[in-house]
Amino acid sequence: MDLKVYNELCFYDDFEQFENECFHRLTSYHWESDPPYRPLTYFKIGVVGDELVTTLKCYEQNPRSVCVKRDDPVYTDSCLEFFVAPVEGRDEYINVEMNSKGVFLSEFGKGKYDRVFITALTDKTPIVEPFKGNDAGGSFWGVKVTLTKDFLCSLYKIKDVSFTKLKANFYKCGDGCAIPHYLAFSPVTTLPPGFHNPECFAVFIKRRTENDSN
Question: Can you give the pTM of this predicted structure?
Answer without folding.
Answer: 0.93
